């Protein structure tokens, strides 16, 4: 029987980014999605600010997110560099994902911003590791359009979107 350290080492070494093109259509059980989200809560944060905010998008809400992201790309991209393929790929990536978490950092003002960013990144690493333990493919993407997504996500002035965490069975 493996020790907890051996199991952890195996999970750490097998963690990989798995992209939506490689996801199957099999659903991810809701309890697994909740375990992945809960794992983020265990990331360290200075003064217990818990700066990571993770909203889960599934079903129609996820599809709407894909359309919003694609339209933001169209809106902010000058026509001379706009790529129809990239526009389509944005919503296709979300369509192929079973679920997507938005990754948002909440700056408390109690500690330096870099600490809150680091804590949020550690929370995402926990999510990666938990997804790996459940054999769920995932990856963190930070497209340029996240700079424009704040109003859609209803972010407060002291919050910033750091990207999206795509999930799907492999």
Automatic annotation (TrEMBL):
<dbReference type="InterPro" id="IPR026021">
    <property type="entry name" value="YdjA-like"/>
</dbReference>
<keyword id="KW-0560">Oxidoreductase</keyword>
<keyword id="KW-0520">NAD</keyword>
<feature type="domain" description="Nitroreductase">
    <location>
        <begin position="12"/>
        <end position="168"/>
    </location>
</feature>
<dbReference type="Pfam" id="PF00881">
    <property type="entry name" value="Nitroreductase"/>
</dbReference>
<dbReference type="InterPro" id="IPR029479">
    <property type="entry name" value="Nitroreductase"/>
</dbReference>
<dbReference type="InterPro" id="IPR052530">
    <property type="entry name" value="NAD(P)H_nitroreductase"/>
</dbReference>
<dbReference type="GO" id="GO:0016491">
    <property type="term" value="F:oxidoreductase activity"/>
</dbReference>
<comment type="similarity">
    <text>Belongs to the nitroreductase family.</text>
</comment>
<keyword id="KW-0285">Flavoprotein</keyword>
<keyword id="KW-0288">FMN</keyword>
<keyword id="KW-0521">NADP</keyword>
<protein>
    <submittedName>
        <fullName>Nitroreductase</fullName>
    </submittedName>
</protein>
<dbReference type="InterPro" id="IPR000415">
    <property type="entry name" value="Nitroreductase-like"/>
</dbReference>
């Amino acid at each position: 029987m493996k020790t907890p350290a051996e199991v952890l080492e195996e999970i750490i070494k097998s963690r990989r980014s798995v992209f939506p093109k490689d996801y199957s259509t099999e659903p991810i059980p809701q309890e697994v999605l909740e375990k992945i989200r809960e794992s983020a809560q265990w990331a360290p944060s200075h003064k217990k600010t818990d700066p990571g905010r993770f909203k889960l998008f599934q079903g129609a809400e996820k599809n709407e997110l894909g359309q919003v992201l694609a339209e933001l790309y169209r809106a902010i991209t000058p026509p001379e560099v706009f790529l129809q393929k990239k526009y389509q790929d944005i919503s296709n990536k979300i369509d192929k994902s079973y679920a997507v978490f938005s990754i948002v950092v909440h700056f408390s003002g109690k500690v330096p911003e870099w600490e809150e960013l680091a804590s949020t990144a550690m929370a995402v690493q926990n999510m990666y590791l938990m997804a790996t333990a459940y054999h769920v493919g995932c990856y963190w993407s930070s497209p340029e359009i996240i700079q424009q997504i704040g109003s859609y996500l209803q972010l407060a002035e002291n919050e910033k979107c750091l990207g999206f965490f795509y999930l799907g069975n492999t």
